[in-house]
Amino acid sequence: MRSFGAVAATLVLAGTFYASGPASASAKTTLTLWQNYGTEQNAVATKNLITAFEQLNPNIKIVDVAQPGTNYFQLLQSAAISKNGPDLAVMWTGIYDLQYASYLVNLKGNVPSADLAKMEGMQWEAPNFNVSKGAYVMPLETQFYIGFYNKHLFKVAGITSVPTDWSQLLADCAKLKAKGIQPIVYGNGGQAISTEFYPWYDMSYLMIGAHSLASWKGLYDGSIPWTSSTNVAQLKNWATLEKKSYTNNDVLTNTANITQFEHGKAAMMVDGTWDTLQYTKTMGTNVAAFVPPYSVTPIQGVVEYPGDGFSVTKYSKNKADAFKFLDFLSTTQAGNIINAAGLIPDISGLKTTNPVNQEMLNFVTVDHMTPYPMMDNYVQVNVGNAADSELPSVLANQTAPLAALKNMAQAWRLLPAAQRSSKGFVG
Q1: 143-304+364-376 belongs to which CATH class?
Q2: Extents of the domains making up the chain
Q3: Which of 158, 230, 343, 371 has the fewest Cβ atoms within 10 Å of its own Cβ atom?
Q4: What is the CATH number of domain 16-142+307-348?
Q5: What is the band of 128 on the pLDDT scale with cuts at 50, 70, 90?
Q6: pLDDT (tens digit, 9 = 90+) per residue, 263-276?
Q7: β-bridge partners, 148
Q8: CB 76 within 8 A of CB 85
Q9: pLDDT, tens digit, for every residue of 293-304?
Q10: How far is CA 42 from CA 75, 87, 123, 308, in A?
Q11: Spatial CA neighbour of 122 closest among 111, 105, 134
């Protein structure tokens, strides 16, 4: 995701299990870890974390198994039923880990509380989002859904500052188009979870622009219907981007959007921190971050969230050693490995050395934008599945915004009552 300065050669190990050196178990343990990272920098970080952990713990071996992203969670569920799956598994946070909590072990009492306290955003891994009840996931990194833009192309078009609302965005797109520059490019980004572009990067900002963080509970419990006029208006504005040819006309099928953006074929794209390193390696100082301005008034929120990490399965026969790996993720050594892979460490007090990732952090720490979770980790899974099948075609102007939102509302109505309640839900 990014280019880095030198990582400090001397690393202080903070994890309790590692304060006195490598593990000393007499028998060799083999752990299996499942991940669905594809070719993203998360996969690089995972590989390097395993190598470092094994060096510290020569009696523990971790087998890294790359699973397909498209049916990863179905595979995990099947493995839980047969109890022949991994000891460690990549798990999305928020509603995802709560849905699959029946086969995950709570970290409380298994990873030292002092080390859990070092990690940021732990409420999103906790039962009912209440961190006092423990957590099911040890985060790998702090993630942003974010916009990237080409500073040179902005300069060519005479754009001197990034847009902060819908009107500015549309005006800037018009300036870029007038210079023969594709304003925004969409596609699947080379990710494993879908063959078409993943709509939740944009949908998160559409809902940030429409509702306060506290109000997001209403999207979960139905007090704000998905079919609300505000939501419809947001999706209509979004579809205008393709309608005015401010996007590529193959938003549903394009698989080369990352390459197109980094080679100057488009001025903007919406993506995540897992690709920052690729952009900074290719584009150098010509790439920068901006908050997608999907708001009638200047956008005031940004997606900053520990979107995924690792969990220990209840059926693991080697839970103690698996929790040693999770505890290792709280150390400075692990944080530096994560940083070197182009990601933002989730450990309090550690910094990113990538300037574009630092721009993202500054949106919260300097500009005081409100950090929001990822919308796809926040809504019920069945509602999310309905949206996955509808939202891409809204941007392509093949499905009307209200029709898509009606399908999401129908999916919500079909949920069990318990899944439509926000009791204990933190927003």
Answers
A1: alpha beta
A2: 16-142+307-348, 143-304+364-376
A3: 158
A4: 3.40.190.10
A5: confident
A6: 999 999 999 999 99
A7: 269, 289
A8: yes
A9: 999 999 999 999
A10: 20, 19, 22, 10
A11: 134
